[in-house]
Design a protein that fits this description.
The protein contains twelve helices and 15 strands. It has 374 residues and is of the alpha/beta class. It folds into two domains: 270 residues, Carbamate kinase (3-Layer(aba) Sandwich); 89 residues, Archaeosine Trna-guanine Transglycosylase, Chain: A, domain 4, CATH 2.30.130. The strands form three sheets. It has an eight-stranded mixed beta sheet with strand order 5-6-4-1-7-9-10-8, sandwiched between helices. Strands 12-11-13-14-15 form a five-stranded mixed beta sheet. It is globular.
Length: 374
């Protein structure tokens, strides 16, 4: 898909994921802003009325819980943040349900932690759930499950979650909404800055310094997280627009608003995408130069002869990183052996191994090469 065709493709997308941040839905003193939320719902309802499917990824649970609990800032301790999410998520989804009901649209709540997408079986379950909701005519409202998520199993921000959901739901387009019009080549709050219209390649943003905080103090992401998420989706063949929430309708209609990230690759299989972007490696295999060349140049399977070391505790079929002598991650893959079995295999030719160990350590069909996104 060419950049010129990407905006019309978004306008014609049969299934689109829309992500909105806390800063667009809430204010620090007043909590949930119903007028802002309703305006977004009206725009998404118009998309639904045109026969297209919508998946909404919405932040705002913790922020929506601050005012009812008498809190005046985002909690710094996990327990209070989880309590705010418990109160706020209820208010958030009920407000969405009431607003969409006025358009005759039923919503379904889908709460996820990173663990739900880093585990392969959970990833498949999430995919089936979202697909079935859409088949039933329901608009899924997805959020991170902040009530139970700990630092170890958090996505960190809902931008990355939205990119993963775009692939999980097999969406045709992704729109990332915030309180900023798009990606600028500088900070428009401190001096002259130009809106970046289209990103065709990571090199287009190589000299751009990206912000990392929301403007009103209730969000956790910033433009850096949106760009990272946009690259994840674009490299998976999904066109992305990053813009402000008031411009949501224009972005969904294919208007020239915000910053367009044109598709930068073909849509990978669900397994390849999961391995690269959603899996959580349980360990590392250290490779020699010959093994690195075989993986990169011939996309060969990894054999024991090319492995020089092992790190971490993992079981057979767990995802692991494959790392070159320079410390750079070359690939991710599903390992065929437990970590405790690996030391006896290191550096040995396949023919010299006992019969039960004469298979690939990581088969090429269970592996994806890893490169920098930007």
């Amino acid at each position: 898909m060419t950049p010129a065709a990407a905006r019309p493709a978004i306008a014609g997308a049969g299934r689109v994921v829309v992500k909105v941040g806390s800063s667009s839905l809430t204010t620090l003193p007043g909590g949930l802003d119903v007028d802002r939320l309703t305006a977004l719902v009206d725009a998404l309802a118009a998309v639904r009325a045109s026969g297209r499917q919508v998946v909404l990824v919405s932040s705002g649970a913790i922020a929506a819980g601050l005012a009812p609990l008498g809190l005046y800032g985002r909690p710094r301790d996990l327990a209070t943040a989880q309590a705010a999410a418990s109160v706020g998520q209820l208010r958030l989804v009920q407000t969405y349900a009431d607003a969409f009901a006025r358009h005759g649209i039923t919503v379904g709540q889908v709460l996820l932690t990173a663990d739900d997408l880093t585990r392969r079986s959970h990833y498949r379950n999430a995919r089936r759930t979202v697909e079935r909701l859409l088949d039933l005519g329901v608009l899924p409202v997805v959020n991170e499950n902040d009530t139970v998520a700990t630092e170890e199993i958090r996505f960190g921000d809902n931008d990355r979650l939205a990119a993963l959901v775009a692939h999980v739901s097999q969406a045709d387009a992704l729109v990332l909404l915030s309180d900023v019009d798009g990606v600028y080549d500088g900070d428009p709050r401190t001096g002259p800055a130009q809106l970046v219209d289209t990103v065709r390649d990571p090199a287009d943003l190589a000299s751009v310094v990206l912000g990392s905080a929301s403007r009103n103090g209730v969000g956790t992401g910033g433009m850096a997280t949106k760009v990272e998420a946009a690259f994840i989706a674009a490299h998976a063949g999904v066109p992305v627009v990053v813009t402000s929430t008031p411009q949501a309708a224009g972005a969904l209609d294919g208007d020239r608003v915000g910053t367009l990230f044109a598709p930068m690759g073909k849509r990978p299989s669900a397994r390849q995408f999961w391995l690269r972007y959603a899996s959580r490696p349980r360990g590392r295999l250290l490779l020699d130069d010959g093994a690195v060349a075989a993986l990169r140049e011939r996309h060969a399977s990894l054999l024991a002869a090319g492995i020089t070391g092992v790190a971490g505790e993992f079981l057979a079929d767990d995802p692991v990183e494959l790392v070159g002598p320079d410390g750079v991650v070359v690939a991710r893959g599903l390992v065929a052996y437990d970590a405790r079995e690996m030391p006896r295999l290191l550096g040995r030719k396949t023919g010299d191994l006992p019969a039960e160990y004469r298979r690939e350590v990581v088969h090429r069909d269970e592996m994806v090469l890893v490169g920098r996104l930007r």
